[in-house]
Design brief:
170 residues, alpha+beta, three-stranded antiparallel β-sheet, two-stranded antiparallel sheet, disordered C terminus
Amino acid sequence: MAAQAQYERYEELARQLSAVGAVKREVARIMPTDCSAGSAAVLALLEQHGDMRMSNLSELLAVDMSVTSRYAAHLAERGWIDRSPDPADKRSRILHLTPEGRTLLAELSRRSAGLLAERLGDWTDDEVSQLIRLMTRLRASFGDTRTTTHPHPARSTGTTRSTSTTRTPA
């Protein structure tokens, strides 16, 4: 019977995790129309890790190089990143955030944090901290090590924010 109860808990967890899509969709609705969740993830990773080759970014995103290339082209067209030749290998490109990209990323972070603050306003600080700890642990259990939590000064509130994917806005 204990095994059945544990199985049912995991079934409920699966249902709850699938419902996270509703949260992601709500966050996506408040974002600029020309900045997808994938684009925001690229910007966040470049902020977190600094300039990098497209191949490194592709690994961090856990997507095919062709997908990374499309993201990079989209972001470069809007002036949010620059792509420059890699001095060590002219066939490769180094990506880095532009000041406009940093400004956009700060706005995305502000919007995401604002929405979460609004929706989780009746949660205690301890509950929010517990959710962060548990989600971090869940991601680690699945081997998602592409992002870590680093406190950064928030751009407009004087509080701290964490960098992660999704923190990837969306």
